[in-house]
Amino acid sequence: MTLNDLLIDIHSLEEELIEFERKYGVRSETFYSAYIAGEEPDDDSWVLDFGEWASIYKTWLTRQAEYRNEVQRLQSKSNSLAGLIRIAA
Predict the structure, then answer these.
(1) What is the block-wise mean pLDDT of the chain (89 residues), using blocks of 10 residues?
(2) Organism's domain of life (predicted)?
(3) 58, 61, 66, 80: which sits with the fewest CB atoms below 10 Å from its CB?
(4) Can you say how many angstroms the Cα of residue 57 is from the centroid of all Cα atoms in its chain?
(5) Contact of 28 with 16, CB cutoff 8 Å
């Protein structure tokens, strides 16, 4: 994926995460920490949402890491922000 593709994907995932955060009133990182620790939803109607939320958050974490790696790779070719922007565009 290009840097621009990664940014588009990250922003799209963030929009979905914000919807869940607003619906349940907690940040995704707080939710995910509890979810991977094995906490079960209090309400059975939340099960599908929690599975989707966790999946989206995990994908977001992966894209963030891919973005950082791509920035480092591109910065090795150019040491300035302007150079990074030109390469990524």
Answers:
(1) 93 98 97 95 91 97 96 80 68
(2) Bacteria
(3) 80
(4) 5
(5) no
